[in-house]
Amino acid sequence: MLGFLEKFTLAPGEVTAVDVQALRRAGIRDQAVRDALYINAYFHIINRLADALDVFVPPPEVFTQGADYLLDRGYVQLTNDGESNAKL
Q1: CA-wise closest residue to 57 among 36, 14, 38, 49
Q2: What does the DSSP assignment read for the chain?
Q3: pTM tops 0.85
Q4: What span, in angstroms and rounded, lies between the C-alpha atoms of 48 and 27?
Q5: What is the reported pLDDT for 84?
Q6: pLDDT along the chain (88 residues), means of 10
Q7: What are the domain boundaries of the chain?
Q8: pLDDT at residue 73, as a whole number
Q9: Rounded to whole angstroms, how far apart are CA atoms 68 and 21?
Q10: Domain 2-73, CATH class in plain words
Q11: Residue 72's pLDDT is what?
Q12: Are 23 and 36 in contact, with CB atoms under 8 Å apart?
């Protein structure tokens, strides 16, 4: 799948039904291919917007700190009675 997505990214005009058929032969379902393509396309759109708008991206250390925090505490904190304090 990653090779297919790389080809889709770097040479989209060269992607054909043969590429998708190879994924099917490998046992990958069409829905998984579509999902991967949607995620790939969305990622590229966001990157282009961020580049065009000169969005600040923090250094890797900031992402590492955030990841460590989430691994330690999770996304949602629980109150003393075990309930979530997430606001819906």
Answers
A1: 49
A2: -HHHHHHHHH-GGG--HHHHHHHHHTT--HHHHHHHHHHHHHHHHHHHHHHHTT-----HHHHHHHHHHHHHH-SS-B-TTS-B----
A3: no
A4: 32
A5: 58
A6: 95 96 97 96 94 93 92 76 59
A7: 2-73
A8: 83
A9: 40
A10: mainly alpha
A11: 87
A12: no
Instruction: State both tokens at 36.
Output: 């991967």
pLDDT of residue 15: 96
- Contact between 30 and 65 (Cβ < 8 Å): no
Angle at 32 between CA 26 and CA 6, to 5 degrees: 75
* Rounded Cα–Cα distance for residues 70 and 72 (Å): 5
Spatial separation of the C-alpha atoms in residues 41 and 5, rounded to whole Å? 10
Quote the CA–CA distance of 45 and 68 in Å, as a whole number: 28
Summarised one tens digit per residue, pLDDT across range 15-25 is 999 999 999 99
Backbone angles phi, psi at 84, to 5 degrees: -75, 145
